[in-house]
Amino acid sequence: SQTIHQWPATLVQPVGSPLSLECTVEGTSNPNLYWYRQAAGRGLQLLFYSVGIGQISSEVPQNLSASRPQDRQFILSSKKLLLSDSGFYLCAWTVGASGYTFGSGTRLTVV
Amino acid sequence: AQSVTQLGSHVSVSEGALVLLRCNYSSSVPPYLFWYVQYPNQGLQLLLKYTTGATLVKGINGFEAEFKKSETSFHLTKPSAHMSDAAEYFCAVSVRDYKLSFGAGTTVTVRA
């Protein structure tokens, strides 16, 4: 069966520190992968998506970057976190028009 | 570009009453439409989807939605609310690039 793993579940980081969130997918090949952010009281904002290894598209300019070193691995990074980077980060995958399958999310608090 | 508008950020219903969540979309090409549910501090779970074919779509947990092209709507309903339906619900649309655009969400509370 297809599963998606996202970690860590919660993270508290100081301003200026680096960030690395990882997402891996099992049970499928060549998925489209996505990073979304959900800020408090706001909807879901698409940050990055990838249609293949090394192919990253950024939806909004920001302090974050993404990488896809393997077919089923998607990493969200930052060199120096800002307070505004706090939020709930969600990884998702899809193959075709089946709809997204989401990970369980990472609650990031920047202090 | 496609977009979604969810009417009403909060809906309160009595247990056993009808749940109706409204969603209107904008798309220049035939869309794919989705409803997701999110419980606190969890990821989103797919309730149902419309891609092609039958316009009345049945999903999990007794929910259903009807695609009405003439009204550009995809409203979500459940005949009888249960306490476990308290959550946030998101309508979403995509086209051939499969990128989902989400509505702002509707929080449902269920009164005993």
Structure in words:
- The complex is a heterodimer of chains A (111) and B (112).
- Chain A has no helices and eleven strands.
- Chain A is mainly β.
- Chain B has no helices and eleven strands.
- Chain B is 0% helix and 55% strand.
- Chain B has strands at residues 3-7, 10-14, 19-26, 32-38, 44-50, 56-58, 64-68, 73-78, 87-94, 101-102, 106-111.
- Chain B is mainly beta and 112 residues long.
- The N and C termini of chain B lie far apart (41 Å).
- Chains A and B meet through strand 5, strand 9 and strand 10 of A and strand 4, strand 5 and strand 10 of B.
Compute the gyration radius of chain B: what is it?
13 Å
Question: Spans of chain A with pLDDT under 50 lasting ≥5 residues?
Answer: none
Let me know the number of strands of chain B.
11
Order of helices and strands of chain A: EEEEEEEEEEE
Percent helix of chain B, as a range, is under 10%
Report the helical percentage of chain A: under 10%
Net shape of chain A: globular
Q: β content of chain A, as a range?
A: over 45%
Distance between the termini of chain A: 38 Å
Count of separate DSSP helical elements of chain A = 0
Rounded Rg of chain A: 13 Å
Task: Give the integer mean of the pLDDT values of chain B.
Answer: 93
Number of strands of chain A: 11
Topology:
The complex is a heterodimer of chains A (111) and B (112).
Chain A: E1 3-7, E2 10-13, E3 19-26, E4 32-38, E5 44-52, E6 55-58, E7 65-70, E8 73-78, E9 87-94, E10 101-102, E11 106-110
Parallel strand pairs in A: 2-11
Antiparallel strand pairs in A: 1-3, 3-8, 4-5, 4-9, 5-6, 7-8, 9-10, 9-11
Chain B: E1 3-7, E2 10-14, E3 19-26, E4 32-38, E5 44-50, E6 56-58, E7 64-68, E8 73-78, E9 87-94, E10 101-102, E11 106-111
Parallel strand pairs in B: 2-11
Antiparallel strand pairs in B: 1-3, 3-8, 4-5, 4-9, 6-7, 7-8, 9-10, 9-11
